[in-house]
Amino acid sequence: MSGNGFDAISQDIANLDINDGARDPFAMWDTAPPPAPKLKSKGVIAMDITEQFGNAARQLDVGQLVKDPYFTLFESVGALEIMDRKMDSGCLEPGETMEDQYDFNQELLPEEIIGIIDQLLCHEMAWHMGHPLAQTIFTSLYIDKLLSPSPISIQQTHFDSRHSFDEPLTLRILRAYCLGLIKTCFYVNSRVKTEHFYEEEDFVTHTFNRSLLEGIEHNDIFQFLDETTKLLAESETLPLDIKRALDCRLQFRAQFLNTVELADSRTSDSLVKQWTTLGDFLPYLNSSSKLGKSVPTSFSVKIQRKLASTVPPRPIVQVSQEAAFDHLERLCRDAAVAVEVLTYYDSHSLMTFVLLFQARKPQPSVYVRTLLQHYLFADMVILGTKSIRHILDDDLAATVLPNDQLLDRDNDEIEVPNDPRHQMSVRMETFRARAAGSYLDILRTICQNRCRIRRGLCHTIADWDNLQLDSEELDVELRVFTGEKPIVDPEISTDPIYSFPLSSWAYFYKLKQMEWIVQMGFELETYQPDELAGMYWYLQYLAKTRSRHLERIRGFDMRSFAAARKNPKATADKMRAYLNAISFINFSTMEASATYGFAGALSCLFTVLGRLSLIKAPPRPYSDDTMRYEVRMKPFSCIGLPELIPFDELTKVVVQPEESTIDLLKFAAESAMGAKKGLEVLSKLSAKGAYCQGSHDSWLNNIKACLKACIFTSITIASVKKAVEAAGKDGKPKIKVEIPPSEKGYHDWWVVPKVIPVP
Amino acid sequence: MAGEAEGSKAAELPAELRYMQYEHALEKQYLPAIRALISKDLSEPYSIYVYRYFLYQWGDLCFMALHPEKPLLIGIIICKLETHQSHSPPTLRGYIAMLATSSSYRNRGIATTLVRKAIDAMIERGADEVVLETEENNIPAMKLYERLGFIRSKKLHRYYLNGSSAYRLVLHLKRTVEMTGEGVV
Ligand SMILES: CC(C)(COP(=O)(O)OP(=O)(O)OC[C@H]1O[C@@H](n2cnc3c(N)ncnc32)[C@H](O)[C@@H]1OP(=O)(O)O)[C@@H](O)C(=O)NCCC(=O)NCCS
């Protein structure tokens, strides 16, 4: 059910006797009701309606629900029970006080400062991981003191007013660190809030009505950290190792603060350096942590009562130091990589970069992912330098419209309405206005968490289906102005064949997204074992469809290339545009054929495993195959092209009843072998040839992981074949099959079953 | 069906369990035990309003498994059934909100029986589909539902307060073309 975890609580209240259960609902009621509140508003006369209310309430049954038709489950979940300790934040244990009694004037040992700082870093990372400030950083009494009331100058941030004249160095260090920490959080929070993310699911930006030091200038805090570092250096009383540990913490914080402030800039070349410098602090920060002494009393769950929130206080989140450092280290590394997106090579490389960056494992943290979004989309200027049109035209040129008059910017200058160039320009602008959003949506969707990527794509493909239809109309209109001559080839068709460049482009991306949806389904372990044969069949079908579609695009690209070559005025630049598009088409075709070969092999293998009852379907008394197929294929049910294959047809092609098991395995082996060769060729491509400039390493790792999965598939197929051939009279091969969980395989998108001999 | 036939452990119970459909008049007697049984597996308790939200409106979709001799609640399922609007076309959607079997009585088919009773009641009322969410690591729950015919339609990232993700499980009870979004009253 929504919004509630199922981790067990310790209290043993099961097997409660139901006859003892019903308590007197009015047991909590004191004999004397509290005095009526004194109302001061003019014209308002307070009246005691206790009796009327009581009478009215007595007309109702206990447990009778009085609600309007709009009262939702969500609202009922939000309701609190007064005087229930788990829900009512004002409900105190006997002798418990509402607030903590903490002495901010007490001197702390330098070791304790280290302890508090390190605990705060754990809390900061817990926040980055998705926990609310209220259960992490805001549980620190020192932070609470600093932020309420909201200060507007450094002078107002003393933990104790007595410190204004005489602040111990230790507390000064803690204060400087806390100021830097909160300001860092401010930048992170603003970044996340500005981009597309899911509140609570990804990250909690809620600050519970507290300002994250918006009132104090960045430079003031930075300088304060710097001055504190100098004071520390002058101190002669501290042991050297302690001094060094404190110094490292102050410098680390200054560096973190500086980095997140600079991180928003899309021009700075020093960004990578900033993140690596920050990362360099971590080993010593981590190892010197053992010098610290924790001060648990300086953190309190009760502070949440003071925060603007509708939920009762929840436990302080405990993230281990190891996990915190691990997270921070990855954050630095990932952020440094994200910066590299700013170097633009070509539109396809850009998309590859984003796809592979998001597929890093574990997925980059929310803050880093929102930074990437910022680099990509801020102010609708792509990567800070390119118009959306620039990217879109690049992409069209590198697929369907190399060196095409439709993309000629000079057309925009023509104002004569009956000039075809003017008409082309107008229609292309219509197309861009329609397509830009859909194109950017792909990039934006793949910036989300893994689950949301799949969910998002399920929505965007419907839009791409419409885009393809709309573009088709434009393609037809444009023919009038481009004077496109169709291919007339009676061997292919009796009708003339036109290129339909814009809708071809849309179809290409729609197919890619449909493949991703199926593949993400493997990654997220959405399919049951007996669904795998069908889903891999569907994947190979989509990839094959893409490959055929690319064939068509290539035909038209080649035709315009040939025509252009006949033109003596054609420049080398123009020739390169054709070659580039053809090279991309070739690359994508190769990739598609590796995918359909591999998917086809797995589909056959799973079909065989089903036949041999090595993978069993559960009984499913409430469902039938068709109804489940409708659930599974729902995202595709609205897609016009390729039309959803009816269930009976799909079953026939997946189950292949007329093929013998051995023949199926032979075919699977050949198909896997073909895919392996394809992947090997791909793995030798240059960054340019594989359209992964800027992310060649990740791309290569990905291809190699696919290759390993493919080789392992061949081995599995061979083992199954051997077992089938060796099977005795009963035809039962002496093997069993295990399906490794997604994380444990060679590649998340390729579920390769493992065969184990049994006696 | 096969799912139930395989286990014979249920025989260890002294006698047949009693399964009972809930109704509002039973609140005083059973609600505290229902809350106790459900809360055992929750990190955060639901307020009484959540229970009443379901039980008052869809008591007939709530079933209890009771000990044959002692006044003891052993299993519980709580559901709702409503027209789901954001769909085109709308569907009459059943939702399994809560399900639990007391820990010492697990693996005897009790939850399976409860789920079946709830689905049967939904079918009787004309439901088009049944959905629910379950934590990604809750293998017993997932197996139970998948055995009955549910499949995972999507994964929900960090769905629960404790940070773990969930799967949405879906069971269609009709062909899509036959879904009307309206039930039998
Ligand atoms: C999930 C939960 C409700 C299952 O309850 P249960 O009563 O043990 O469930 P069942 O007995 O029907 O099924 C469990 C297993 O017992 C087996 N079983 C044993 N005897 C059986 C019998 N006579 N009939 C049917 N199944 C039987 C089932 O086949 C099933 O096996 P499997 O794990 O291999 O699939 C229970 O573990 C629970 O309360 N968990 C905590 C709350 C929770 O997670 N709720 C679900 C939230 S959506």
TrEMBL record, chain A:
Q: Which GO terms describe its cellular component?
A: NatC complex
Question: Could you tell me where this protein is found in the cell?
Answer: Cytoplasm
What keywords are annotated for this sequence in UniProt? Cytoplasm
Domain of life of the organism in this record?
Answer: Eukaryota
**What range(s) does the NAA35-like TPR repeats domain occupy?**
338-751
Query: Which segments cross the bilayer?
Result: none
Which residue intervals define the domain NAA35-like N-terminal in the entry? 63-221
By its UniProt entry, which InterPro entries does this protein fall under?
A: NAA35-like_N (IPR057983), Naa35_N (IPR007244), TPR_NAA35 (IPR057982)
**Can you tell me which family this protein belongs to?**
Belongs to the MAK10 family.
Protein name, UniProt field: Probable MAK10 Glucose-repressible protein
From TrEMBL, chain B:
**Which Pfam families does the entry link to?**
Acetyltransf_1
For the biological process aspect of GO, one term held by this record is: regulation of protein localization
Please state every residue range assigned to the domain named N-acetyltransferase.
20-174
Gene Ontology MF terms: inositol hexakisphosphate binding; protein-N-terminal amino-acid acetyltransferase activity
Gene Ontology CC terms: NatC complex
Q: Which residues cross the membrane?
A: none
Per the record, the domain of life is: Eukaryota
Annotated keywords: Acyltransferase, Transferase
Question: PANTHER family in the record, alphabetically?
Answer: N-ALPHA-ACETYLTRANSFERASE 30
Q: What protein name applies here?
A: Probable N-acetyltransferase
